[in-house]
Design brief:
Length: 246
């Protein structure tokens, strides 16, 4: 399938904050139950043992995503230290960040100011991570993101679970259409979520539309090779691939 870099609703400045955060909270809700990225813990531990960063800087954190459980994968295994995790986003979901930081005190922190992935501030130094977010960026922005990480000397790990495949499109549509069933049970509770789900169904529509667009925007391993060459991040050793394991 050809890659199409279409626009997602929650990326737009005109998107209401309640709708954007409603989509992010639903994605976090799914993460808590499906734990899609649990298998990434082994890879992260291996890299963190090598680079020993002062912190993990999670970019494009949304509602907190996999860190609701992934921090335990680092805590319970042979990671060299209890590495603090800092959540960031261009549109910080403060209520979701506060809840997660409160649940995992002294391990997860957050930045309440917007963070541009192509110009990460000097005070946010550490190993960078992105979960289900790299597809949001066109080639130029993606390259600048890699170049910024290389210029700072910080490592970076990028994970996606969507694919440009017909089965992924059907699966994404099915998950998006279940959002109205889950809305009353998602935490933190927001009255605005119920309004934008049942009165004006903007959140389920954004989940469906953005989910399908996300599948069409995901970079293939070959396209990632091209981005790495274009970024010209000398001195880095890159790994990329697809994991179909259970």
């Amino acid at each position: 399938m050809k890659r199409w870099h279409l626009a997602e609703i929650i990326d737009q400045k005109w998107c209401p904050t309640a709708v954007r955060e409603g989509v992010q909270d639903y994605l976090k809700f799914l993460e808590q139950r499906l734990q899609i990225y649990r298998r990434c813990g082994d890879r992260l531990r291996r890299v963190l043992r090598q680079v020993r960063p002062a912190a993990i800087i999670d970019l494009c954190s949304g509602g907190g995503g996999p860190w609701t459980y992934l921090w335990q994968e680092l805590e319970n295994k042979d990671c060299p230290q209890q590495i603090p995790i800092r959540l960031t986003d261009l549109y910080p979901n403060i209520q979701a960040f506060e809840q997660l930081a409160g649940d995992v005190k002294e391990r997860i922190w957050y930045c309440d100011q917007p963070v541009d992935v192509t110009r990460v501030p000097e005070n946010l130094r550490g190993f960078r991570t992105l979960f289900t977010a790299f597809h949001h960026f066109d080639r130029s922005t993606a390259c600048r993101m890699l170049q910024d990480a290389a210029a700072s000397g910080d490592g970076i790990a990028i994970f996606e679970f969507n694919q440009r495949h017909i089965l992924s499109l059907f699966g994404t549509a099915a998950i998006a259409l279940m959002q109205p069933l889950a809305a009353p049970f998602i935490r933190p509770f927001r009255w605005s979520r119920l309004f934008w789900t049942y009165v004006i169904p903007a959140i389920p529509f954004a989940c469906l539309f953005d989910g399908l667009v996300s599948c069409m925007r995901v970079y293939s391993p070959g396209e990632l090779d091209g981005l790495i060459k274009e970024a010209d991040a000398s001195g880095y050793r890159w790994e990329r691939g697809v994991d179909y394991g259970p």
